[in-house]
Every structure is written in C-alpha cells, then in structure tokens.
C-alpha cells in the first residue's frame, strides 16, 4: 500500500469581541489527523484560548473543516488517478469487465453434490431406514473382508513359497552363488509386487463398485421413503459381536477443567492407555461405529491427530498402517484413502492458495523457519516440512471422522521438544484446524508417539506430557479469548506399553496444569422453589417454541 | 373503533451474511497477542453504525458472529426496492411518489451519512428501499464500506461496479463524492425505468459512455437512450462529473431549485433526557408537531423493540440464514481444508464458494411475534405512569418468577419495555418510579438507560466528556492501561475489537485526567467494561455512568494510597459476615483467612473481575438500587453460599478456592444479599470513607412506599454528629462486632412499637442487653431492656441460665429474626461481652456506638418504676 498522502494547511477562525473588534486565529494542521477530531478541537480551544462564548461555534467549524478537508484529500487523490483516464479508458474497461465477471461466480458443483448426499444420508441415518442401511454396509464389509482375506492368504502363500525356495537354494550343498541368490530375490520381489498390485486394483475396484452401489441404493431408498414407504425398524438379531479382549491393564481417567478468568468454559479431558489403531480398526459390528455414523454429517466430529512421516506416500510408517486399517470396512462416503492423498499431492504441486488479505498492524510470526515443500528426485515423493498438517476424511473408521496427519521425522519426535519447536507449532496448527472445523472430540497422542522406545523413560514421559499439556492449554486460552464458547473433549492417548507408575504420575500432574473447578456443595438448607411443568404451563410461561 | 394490537406492531428486518477474509494461521499482532479476527473488528466498528438514525436510512439492529468468519448484519427491511419499482410490474398499492422525491430522499440520507464521515459506496438500485406506508426512500446496506474498513476486511468488491465512480474503479479511492456519482447513475436508471442499455448493452459499453469526459449530460443520456427529464439536467450536470473534486456535495445538491417543494421526512430519535445540552432542548412547537399526532399508533412498537422481542422468543438469525442455505460449511465434513503448511497457508480442495459475497438483504419475518402480540391490549403500548403504575392482571404472578423465565416471555417483556420507555422519558422527575420498577426487574433492552437513571446521571455529559483532554500523555499509567485493555473481558467481541480497545482507552484516560486526586489501579478497566458494552455507541454516557458509579460504590479506592479506605471497607465487611454468620466468620478469623487475601478484587472491581458480564448485569441490576454498602452484602452472600465448603477447609484450601471464583448461583447470591440488606440496621455498615452525598446535589430521597431502605442516604445532621466520634481503622480493628448508631436503634424500636400497637407482630424482635451492674441499671435504662451484668456468668456449671434475663437472651441465640443489641458502659466491657456472644454463635449481634452514655445523652434512659 502506498503511504498515505498528507497535506498541511491552516484552519482560520475568527470571533467577535465587545467594542466591535474581531479576533482571528490561525491553526496549522497536518491532515489526515491522528486521533479523533473532537479531541483535537478541545486541544485547540485550550491552546488558542478561545473564549467560552465562541467555543461552540469553533467546535462546529473545526469539525466541519476537518471532515471536508480530509474528504478533499481523497478527492484530489482520485483526481490524480483519473488524469489519464481518457487515454487508458479502453484498456481499463476490459480489466473491469473481467473483474466484474469474477465478482459474480457460481458455487462449486462438487461441494454441492457432496453436501446433498450428506444431507440425505444424515436423514436416513436418523430414520427407521438406519438398520437397513447398516445391513447394507455390513453386507459390503463382509464382501470386502472376504477379498482382503483371500489376498492376505495368497500373499502369505507366495511368501511361504519364496522362503522355501530360497532356503532350498541356500541350503543346497553349501555352495552359494551370490549372483544367483540376488537374481532369485529380485524375481521373488517382483513376483510379489505384481501380486500385490493385482490385488490392490481388485480391492479398489470392489470398493469403487460398492461405493457406487451404495450411492444409488441410498438415493433410491430416500426417494422411496419420501414416497411413503414404511421401514419397520426391526432390531437386527443379536450380532455375533463380542468386544475384543484387551491384553493390557485398563488405565483411564477423566477430568473436567475450566479455562478463562471471568467467563469460564468447561472442557473435558480424558487420559487413557490404548493402541491408537483400536480406535480406528475394530470389528465391523462394533457398537462405536454406529455412533460414528450417526454423527458423520453433524457439527460434532471426531478427529485424530496422527504423527506421520514427512514423506507423502502410502508406504511408510503410520500412513501405511492407516491404509491397511481402511481396508477393514468399505468407504462409502468419501474418496478412497490413496486418492485423497493423491489430491493433496496434486494440490501441493499446483497450489492456488486461498488468498488472505492482511490488515496492516500485524506481523507474520517469523520465528518459524522458512519451509517449503520439496520433491524427492529419486522417488518422486513430496517431502513436507515438519509441522505440516494434512487432513483425510473417513466414514469407515471406528471412532474417527477425520485424521489430521502431522508431518515430522522420527528423529524430531524422539528428541527434545520445546515450545517454539516446529513440531509443536504444527500441533497448535492441528488443534486450531480441529477447532475451526467442528471437531469437538479430538484424540491426541500425548507423547506424540504410539510406542515407547527403550530410551523413553519415566522422566522423558513426564517432560513430554507437560510440554503437550501446556501447548493444549495455551491453545484453549487463545481460543477462549476469541469468544468461542463451545466445550470440547480432548482425548489424550498413551501408548499401550506405558507403565502404571507413569500413568499415575501424569494423571496427578494434569490438575496442576489445568484448573479443575471446585466442587459446589449445596447445603441442605437451600430452599429453592422449583416450579413444575404443570404450573409453568398454567401460567403460560414455558419458553416459546418459535 | 379502538385500535387492536395487531395494528400496532408492524415492520420487518433483514439480514446480510458477510463472509469476511480470514487471516493466515500463524499471525500475531504487534503486541504479541493473537491477531484479532476480521469478524471481531467488524463487530467493533458496528458500534458506531448502530447509533445512526435518520428518516432516509434503514436502522441497523444487530450484528452477530457465526462460525467460519461469518458476520450477520441485521437491519431494517422493506420489501420494495428501487429495483422492483422500475421493473415492468411495480408492486401495486404503493403511494405515488415522484422520482424527484426519491432522489431527494436518497440525497438527504447521503448528506446525513457524509456529515458523520461515512462513505456509503453501495448506492445501488437494490439498496434503496421504499417504505410502504409513506413511500419514503431509505438507504440500506450503507455501512458495509465503513464496517469492512474501506473494503479491506473482505475479499470482494463492496458496491456495484456498474454504478461505481471512475476513481473507484481506477484506484479504489473512495471519498464521499463516489456516492454522488452512484446516485447520478441511479437517477439515470430511474428515468430509464430499467437498467442502462446501449446498442452493445454490455458493461464496458455503458462505462465507456458514462466515463466519456467530453460528452455532455444530454449526449450521454441520448447515447444510453435515457429519456432525460429537463428538471434533472442541472442535477446531473453537477453530479455526473468525472473529477471527484468537481462533483457537487450532497449538501449542495439538496439546495438545488428542483427540490424546493420536497419535504424532509420526519423522524423521532430514540432520545432519553440524559444529555440535556442546548442541542437537545425542544421548543413547544416541536412537541406539538401535528404530523406526529396524525399517526401516533404506527410507532407503538419500534423496530428495535420488535427485534429484541423476536430474539427473546428464541429467534436465531444464524438459523434463519441456514434456512436460506447461506451459511458456508453447514455440513462441516464436506468443507474441510486439505493442507495447512507451517507458514500458515491453507490449501482447500475447492476454491471457497462465494456464498455471502452478494451483499443481499434476506428478509426475516417476525410475523409469529406480531401474531402473539395481536391480542395485547392497546393500553399496554401506552402505559400510564403516574396514575396507575401497576402491573396488569396476570403479570403480577409473572413478576415473581426467576429472571430467566421472565426474559423469555414476550408479553411480559413488551409490558416492561413500554413502561420503562415511558418512565425514562420522564427522567429525572420519574426517578423514584424507575427505582420502584427496577426492584422487580430491568428489561435487557433498556438496561443501559435504566442504569444511568439509577446512577442519576445528568447534565450536559457530552460536553463534559468532550472537554476532557484525552490526548495528554500519562506516562506509566498509559503503559499500564495498554497492558490491561487487551486482557479485559476479551470473550466479549466488542471489547476484544480494536474499536472497543480504543474506546475503553479513551474512557479510562478521561477518568484518570478528570480525577487528578485519584490514580489508575488495575481493575478500573473491568469496572468500565459493563458500561462500555452497554453504551457501545455512546462513549459520553458510558463515561458519565462510570464516573458516578465509581464515586458511589468505590469512592477513594483509587487513591494513590488506598490502604486505609480498603482496610476500613474490608473490616466492616468482616463485621457484616460476623453479624449474619458468626460461625463462619469465626472459622475464617481463626484460620487467619482475612478478606485482604481474597476480597480485594471483589470490591475493587465490584465483582467484574470475577464474574462474566452476563452475571454482572444481573448483579448490578440489584446493586444499583442499594446504597454504597450493598456490595458488602453481595460479598457476604457469596461467602455464605460456599460456607459448608469453607467450614470444612483449611487455610490453604481456602486460598485455592478463591484463587479462582467458584461457580456460584448468582440468583441466590442476589436473593440472599437482599434478605440480609433488609434485616441489617443501616448504620451497621457505616463507613467514614464512603461517599456521602452533598446536600444540595439532589432532592432528599423520599422513602418509596412498601420498599425497604433502598434509597437511604445519611442525612447531613447525622453525619456532622457522628463522623467525628466514629473510630479510626486501627481502633475499629479491635472490634469484631459491628456497631449501630443510636438513631438507628431508636428508629427500630419505634417501628417495633408501632407495629405492636397496631396489634401485629414485628418481623424481627429487638433484644436490648444492658451489661452494667444491676444497681446502675436500676437508676436508668432503656425500657424493656434485659440486664445481664458482665460480671456475672451466663450459665451455671451445670448449664442452667443464671437468671431469667439470661434465659430470655439465650432463647434468641439462633433466631433468624431477632436482633440483639448490646449496650455497655465502656468500650472494653462491651467488646468483651460481644465477643462472648459471638463465641456462642449468636446471630445478629450489634453494639450501640457510644454505649449507655449515648443513650443518656439522647434522653432515652428511664428509671425502673
């Protein structure tokens, strides 16, 4: 923005005094004024010793003068900009015409379609059709599971076969030809990859078919239900579901905490030991899935922060595990996981970042190292800077709707984490994403890792959880100060090899960091009269339902 | 025929959804705090717009922040726009208005806006609405350019490009003159009875003709095939000028000959007589304006009131918008971003869809409310205040219910709003009536004015406030204010906006400069916050209310050395707690958990530091009715509410409990405080350092009928008699038992006597205990007083009372409705005796200031007959 034009000029004022004299005052001014003109007027009245009988006139004239002159300043700027209008008019008009067209765009089509489908699904989930829908889903899941099972068996068979072949070869008479072994290994890998690719395409083909089938089934069912077709809400016969046995001691604790000095916002914190994949995978008939499905298209989503490798591909670390988990249950609502990753990749390669205008009085936090997305030459993978978050959406995970992938390297996760660390900045960014996008339930790995390595001892755990708690608390305060009053649940998940001692220590540390509200004891003498509903109706006092 | 309710309520409002630009994720502001959202900035700027009022502009009613940087701006709505008027089928039954009158109306509206420094930039055919009844043209959506900080807060063009002045299109520089250009183009459209067209009929073609410098107005019109009416030639020659500086101002245009017959619209400002400056003085002529008498009923319920009632009945602007499908991301999972980079850039799968950039007004119909109000008696709209200031039938029961329920009943609220409006118009003469009514409840819509009335704000406050030089530097105080403001009630959108910060700073600085003997202490910011939130569009009134409030309730708390004031306050507070709950008070005293450790922020900020604004509103609604000691009762009520917890706690736990205010039931705090206030002798909470009204400052308050001692103040004679003899803080600290003055005792006794004479039983019994020895007692004592000599034990070793007097005394130990007054010969003995009663957990014990000598001086002693 060009510096604002200024102008110095004089304000002249005169007033009459007895004996027919006139006093003239001239006040030098620099426009535009800083501060309110009314304040300036009072200053000048004092400094120029304007007598009280002339004060009102002075004030009026001064304010009018300032308003007019400041407006004139802008008018003059406008005049200057129009000097060459005649010459440039034709060119300019073309530019404006384009702008004018851009200014009236149409809403994007695909979002609309997705939202419509979502609305229909939401209605059906909350209607007697629910059970039919669940049955449809389970049928597809069964089909998928069969295929996945077949694949796993075949790969297992190939692997066994390969091992046998290799062992036979190696044990053959003690003499080993290294080149031959290498050749064999190479051919085995190729064979296996071929098989995997074949199966992958078959599975994704099935999923695509199922998704299309589900889509048309939903639309058809919806129309039928609009047409008045009754669905009897038969409770399905007892499922062959029994909760998976847990192999480690159950450790769990919940807290209510409040944030804010005057207006207090209550949040729930939950601390528990579990395998993060148990929250995503799990039996297709697990009851949690029903809850997840019912809230899929609502304003209360569940999110999971997942620490992932800084390479954006399907084959490494947690991303790979997640892709396997996604095969347990068919995905009916969103693109398959690999396609979603691909969309992200494409977006990063050809960014059209949402432009955000910026007011003048703020700074970009420049302590964050300048980080750019790089492309690895050999593999073609994108290398994301630490702290990058990308989101994927799922309807087929047990307790999670969206996964926030937080990119980092193993080295960074295991090392020391300070509050200005890119990893924590990334975590804050993930928390903010979750809060802006209605994720009222958020699962956070407290140690930022899903498995405790030998070098992560008790002290390490304590230090790490303190840093994360404080980061989350700082975020809550920040959000609370912007007037957001929704209360949220934060689930802190600890790796399943956490010791009882560490868990106890962390759960007793939590109330020292967050403020746990004091219990309110109502004394028995409280003589509060409460009106019954009947009384209220009699008095016509129930809140009106408008 | 008498008018029916449904004729009295008309009007409609509309809402414009604005999706403002978002900031990158990792921005921080200059002071290191998180950056203010654009939506919050808008809400701050709205404060000034809400105060605007003119017959030719639509009133702004509300602004609401939604999710995802959505700002919903609610304003007056009329269903006919100029756009429809010029269309092929204009709506029927519209009063015939000439084009001339419409142009005049728009110009008047613009003149009003320009005189307040507001550039409209959205003068379009859609944004000029026609009022059905009168045919008056009104500008709507006029505030967007102002709200969005000159268009900086949004990603789209404010206004209509086809109607924009050349300098706006070239350089985006907008002065008041760009509105004049748009007005001229609107006039062309009006004469053309449709949008402008030429042969090519494109945007570019029209712009080229309009911007052609050499063409005269007539030539432009003929090229655009506009039927130019001769009367407008002069108007257009002055307004359709390329160079902004050569274009006429709205004021100049209004003076043109063609408008000589046009009548400015009449309009009644929402004006309450707080700021009686010369400008506001009305002449008898103004009051008896005949045009107002013609149609008085149309103003039975203003649009502001209607909107408030609609909201109270559960109306939700955001839900209405969602119904229109105008809220972005109504299904959140379909609208998730893809990637957020550490640099704060956000990548989305699709470009943001452009909902909410249309600047269109969507109507909301309050028809349900109008229907509900249809059967309300017309009398309700025009309540009589002096002859029959009573609640109507059916409303009596209502008045006794909890505030939450009352605030949801729109018939009741209508009643209250109308009554208070009438009373406020009569202020200050109606001050007693206002006080009486406010005892019941205060309608939220009028709370700001009711508060100012209860605080007895008056005089030319605008002038007073303006004259305070807020530009002078205060050094360290300035820095402290800068630190405190961004931490003061920031959950409130207005207070967290830059406009809110600026206004709060000005008010605080004005206060400091206006009170040279006092200083700024942290806490004054919190005290000012409720007033600023209520009077967000009227700084002067907010300031005046703060000034009187501080003087009345926290007098001299802001002295450079306020220790003696504070100590006295907290000690009297201790005595009050002792009076009402000796068990708790002794427990706290034994632990050493003195009020200095927890209650200073309560009283220094009158609870604004510990409760959110919504609770403060209710708390202060009642507090403003009481005298300067009422806050102590609130404090005591808070303590008593958590008494069970406190009694079971040790020192450390107590500290922890009050380090953060526990969640208390505000309604109960208020009720308990009221109850205690009613039964506590007035002089028990007397403080030397409280503010005592100057005699000539106000008419002596009349005791309101039936009401308790709400408006009680100490008379001048009383003060001159007793202030001198009242102990200093150091001496006071010896006393854990509160003292009452002899006048108070005499009044209470007289009252009891008069009740008993009438055959009733007084609500409380007064037991006067004389602790002198029997011989002295016999010589002269207060009639009916008990003689329990201090020298004598109260009970025998086996627990029997030693005398019938002691027996009587002990019966009153736990009685909630008795008052025990101790009269002693000297300080030491009285103190000792009181302490003993406290130890026995006697409720409501006080001692007479001055003891028996005061009684004898007053001639109240008589010998045993």
Biggest sheet strand line-up of chain B: 11-15-14-12-13
| CA gyration radius of chain B, whole angstroms | 34 Å
CATH topology of the largest domain in chain A: Leucine Aminopeptidase, subunit E, domain 1
Largest interface: A-B, 121 and 126 residues
The CATH topology name of the largest domain in chain B reads Transferase(Phosphotransferase), domain 1
Report the major sheet of chain A. Answer: 7 strands, mixed
Mean pLDDT of chain B: 81
DSSP helix fraction of chain A: 40-55%
- Beta percentage of chain A is 15-25%
- Outline type of chain A: elongated
Strand content of chain B: 5-15%
Main sheet makeup of chain B: 5 strands, parallel
Poorly predicted runs of chain B: 1-7, 276-298, 695-712
Strand order of the largest sheet of chain A: 3-4-13-12-5-11-10
Low-confidence stretches of chain A: 354-362, 523-546
| Helix/strand order of chain A | EEHHHHHHEEHHEEHHEEEEEHHEHEHH
The computed structural class of chain B is alpha/beta
Architecture (CATH level 2) name of the largest domain in chain A: 3-Layer(aba) Sandwich
- Provide the CATH top-level class of the largest domain in chain A: Alpha Beta
- What is the averaged pLDDT score of chain A? 80
CATH class annotation of the largest domain in chain B: Mainly Alpha
């Amino acid at each position: 923005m060009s510096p604002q034009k200024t102008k110095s000029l004089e304000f002249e004022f005169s007033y009459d005094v007895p004996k027919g004299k006139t006093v003239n005052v001239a006040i030098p001014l620099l426009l535009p004024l800083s501060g309110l003109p009314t304040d300036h007027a009072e200053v000048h009245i004092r400094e120029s010793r304007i007598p009280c009988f002339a004060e009102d006139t002075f004030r009026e004239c001064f304010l009018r003068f300032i308003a007019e002159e400041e407006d004139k300043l802008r008018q003059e700027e406008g005049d200057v900009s129009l000097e060459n209008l005649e010459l440039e008019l034709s060119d300019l008009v073309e530019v404006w015409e384009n702008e004018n067209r851009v200014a009236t765009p149409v809403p994007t089509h695909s979002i609309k379609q997705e939202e419509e489908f979502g609305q229909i699904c939401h209605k059906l989930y909350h209607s007697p059709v629910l059970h039919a829908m669940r049955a449809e889903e389970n049928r597809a899941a069964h089909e998928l599971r069969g295929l996945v099972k077949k694949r796993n068996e075949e790969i297992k068979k190939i692997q066994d076969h390969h091992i046998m072949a290799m062992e036979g070869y190696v044990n053959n008479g003690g003499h080993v030809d290294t080149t031959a072994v290498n050749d064999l290994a190479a051919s085995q890998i190729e064979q296996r990859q071929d098989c995997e690719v074949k199966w992958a395409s078959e599975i994704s083909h099935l999923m695509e078919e199922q998704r299309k089938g589900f889509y048309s089934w939903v639309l058809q069912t919806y129309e039928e239900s609009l047409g008045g077709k009754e669905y009897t809400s038969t409770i399905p016969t007892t499922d062959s579901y029994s909760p998976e046995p847990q192999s480690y001691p159950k450790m769990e604790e919940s807290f209510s905490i409040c944030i804010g000095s005057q207006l207090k916002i209550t949040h729930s914190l939950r601390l528990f030991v579990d395998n993060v994949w148990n929250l995503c995978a799990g039996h297709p008939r697990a009851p949690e899935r029903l809850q997840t499905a019912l809230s899929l298209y609502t304003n209360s989503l569940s999110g999971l922060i997942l620490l992932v490798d800084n390479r954006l591909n399907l084959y490494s670390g947690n991303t790979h595990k997640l892709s396997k988990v996604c095969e347990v249950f068919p995905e009916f609502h969103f693109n398959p996981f690999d396609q979603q990753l691909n969309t992200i990749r494409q977006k990063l390669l050809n960014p059209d970042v949402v432009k955000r205008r910026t007011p003048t009085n703020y700074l970009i936090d420049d302590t964050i190292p300048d980080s750019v997305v790089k492309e690895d030459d050999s593999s073609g993978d994108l290398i994301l800077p630490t702290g990058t978050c990308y989101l994927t959406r799922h309807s087929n995970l047990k307790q999670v709707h969206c996964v926030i992938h937080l990119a980092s390297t193993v080295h960074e996760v295991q090392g020391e984490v300070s509050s200005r660390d890119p990893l924590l900045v990334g975590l804050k960014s993930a928390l903010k994403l979750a809060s802006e996008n209605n994720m009222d339930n958020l699962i956070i790995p407290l140690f930022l890792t899903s498995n405790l390595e030998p070098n992560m001892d008790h002290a390490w755990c304590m230090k790490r959880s303190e840093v994360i708690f404080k980061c989350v608390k700082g975020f809550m305060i920040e959000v609370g100060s912007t007037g957001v009053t929704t209360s949220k649940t934060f689930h802190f998940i600890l790796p399943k090899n956490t010791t009882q001692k560490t868990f106890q220590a962390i759960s007793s540390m939590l109330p020292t960091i967050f403020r746990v509200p004091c219990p309110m004891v109502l004394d028995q003498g409280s003589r509060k009269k409460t009106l019954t509903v009947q009384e209220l109706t009699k008095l016509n006092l129930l809140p009106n339902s408008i | 025929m008498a008018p029916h309710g449904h004729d009295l309520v008309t009007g409609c409002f509309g809402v414009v959804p604005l999706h403002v630009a978002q900031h990158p994720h990792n921005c921080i502001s200059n002071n290191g705090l998180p950056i203010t959202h654009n939506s919050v900035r808008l809400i701050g700027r709205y404060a000034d717009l809400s105060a605007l009022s003119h017959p030719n502009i639509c009133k702004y009613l509300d602004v609401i922040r939604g999710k995802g940087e959505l700002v919903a701006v609610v304003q007056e709505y009329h269903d006919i726009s100029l756009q429809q008027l010029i269309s092929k089928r204009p709506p029927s039954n519209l009063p015939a208005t000439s084009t001339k009158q419409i142009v005049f109306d728009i110009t008047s509206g613009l003149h009003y806006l320009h005189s307040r420094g507001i550039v409209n930039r959205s003068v379009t055919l859609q944004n000029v609405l026609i009022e059905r009844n009168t045919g008056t043209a009104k500008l709507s959506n006029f505030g967007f350019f102002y709200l969005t900080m000159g268009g900086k807060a949004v990603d789209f063009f404010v206004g209509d490009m086809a109607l924009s002045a050349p300098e706006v299109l070239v350089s985006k520089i907008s002065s008041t003159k760009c509105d004049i250009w748009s007005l001229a183009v609107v006039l062309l459209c009006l004469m053309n009875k449709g949008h402008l067209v030429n042969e090519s009929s494109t945007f570019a073609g029209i712009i080229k003709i309009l911007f052609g410098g050499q063409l005269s107005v007539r030539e432009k019109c003929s090229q655009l095939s506009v039927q130019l009416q001769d009367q407008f030639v002069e108007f257009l020659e002055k307004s359709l000028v390329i160079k902004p500086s050569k274009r006429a101002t709205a004021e100049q245009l209004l003076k043109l000959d063609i408008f000589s017959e046009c009548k400015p619209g009449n309009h009644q400002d929402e004006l309450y007589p707080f700021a009686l400056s010369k400008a506001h003085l009305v002449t008898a002529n103004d009051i008896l304006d005949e045009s107002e008498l013609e149609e008085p009923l149309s103003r039975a319920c203003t649009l502001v009131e209607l909107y408030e009632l609609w909201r109270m009945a559960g109306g939700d602007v955001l839900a209405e918008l969602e119904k229109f499908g105008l809220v972005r991301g109504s299904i959140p999972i379909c609208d998730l971003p893809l990637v957020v980079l550490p640099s704060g850039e956000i990548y989305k799968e699709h470009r943001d869809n452009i909902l909410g950039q249309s600047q269109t007004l969507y109507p909301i119909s309050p028809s349900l409310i109008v229907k509900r109000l249809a059967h309300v008696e017309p009398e309700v709209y025009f309540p009589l205040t002096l002859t029959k200031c009573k609640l109507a039938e059916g409303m009596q029961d209502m008045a006794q219910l909890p505030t939450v329920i009352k605030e949801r009943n729109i018939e009741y609220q209508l009643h209250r709003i109308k009554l208070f409006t009438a009373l406020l118009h009569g202020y200050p003469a109606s001050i007693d009536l206002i006080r009486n009514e406010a005892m019941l409840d205060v309608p939220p819509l009028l709370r700001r004015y009711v508060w100012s009335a209860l605080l007895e704000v008056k005089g030319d406050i605008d002038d007073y406030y303006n004259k305070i030089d807020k530009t002078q530097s205060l050094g360290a105080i300035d820095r402290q204010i800068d630190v405190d403001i961004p931490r003061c009630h920031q959950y409130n959108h207005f207070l967290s906006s830059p406009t809110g910060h600026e206004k709060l700073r000005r008010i605080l600085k004005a206060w400091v400069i206006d009170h040279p003997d006092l200083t700024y202490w942290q806490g004054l910011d919190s005290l000012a916050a409720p007033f600023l939130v209520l009077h967000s569009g009227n700084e002067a009134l907010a300031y005046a209310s703060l000034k009187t409030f501080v003087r009345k309730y926290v007098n001299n708390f802001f002295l450079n050395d306020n220790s003696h004031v504070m100590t006295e306050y907290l000690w009297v507070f201790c005595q009050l707690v002792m009076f009402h709950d000796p068990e708790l008070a002794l427990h706290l005293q034994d632990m050493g958990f003195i009020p200095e450790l927890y209650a200073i922020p309560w009283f220094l900020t009158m609870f604004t530091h510990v409760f959110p604004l919504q609770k403060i509103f209710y708390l202060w609604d009642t507090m403003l009715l009481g005298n300067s000691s009422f806050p102590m009762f609130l404090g005591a009520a808070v303590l008593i509410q958590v008494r069970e917890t406190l009694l079971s706690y040790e020192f450390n736990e107590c500290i922890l409990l009050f380090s953060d205010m526990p969640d208390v039931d505000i309604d109960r705090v208020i009720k308990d405080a009221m109850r205690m206030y009613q039964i506590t002798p007035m002089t028990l909470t007397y403080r030397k350092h409280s503010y005592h009204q100057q005699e000539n400052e106000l008419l002596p308050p009349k005791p309101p009928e039936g009401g308790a001692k709400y408006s009680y103040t100490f008379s001048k004679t009383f003060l001159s008699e007793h202030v001198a003899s009242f102990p200093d803080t150091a001496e006071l600290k010896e006393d854990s038992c509160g003292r009452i003055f002899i006048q108070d005792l005499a009044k209470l006794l007289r009252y009891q006597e008069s009740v008993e004479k009438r055959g009733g039983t007084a609500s409380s019994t007064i037991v006067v205990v004389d602790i002198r020895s029997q011989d002295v007692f016999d010589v002269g004592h207060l009639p009916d007083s008990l003689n329990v000599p201090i020298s004598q034990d109260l009970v025998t070793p086996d627990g029997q009372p030693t005398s019938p007097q002691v027996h009587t005394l002990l019966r009153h130990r736990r009685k909630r409705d008795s008052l025990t007054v101790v009269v002693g010969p000297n300080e030491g003995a009285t103190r000792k005796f009181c302490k003993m009663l406290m130890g026995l957990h006697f409720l409501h014990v006080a001692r007479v200031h001055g003891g028996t000598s005061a009684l004898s001086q007053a001639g109240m002693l008589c010998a045993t007959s």
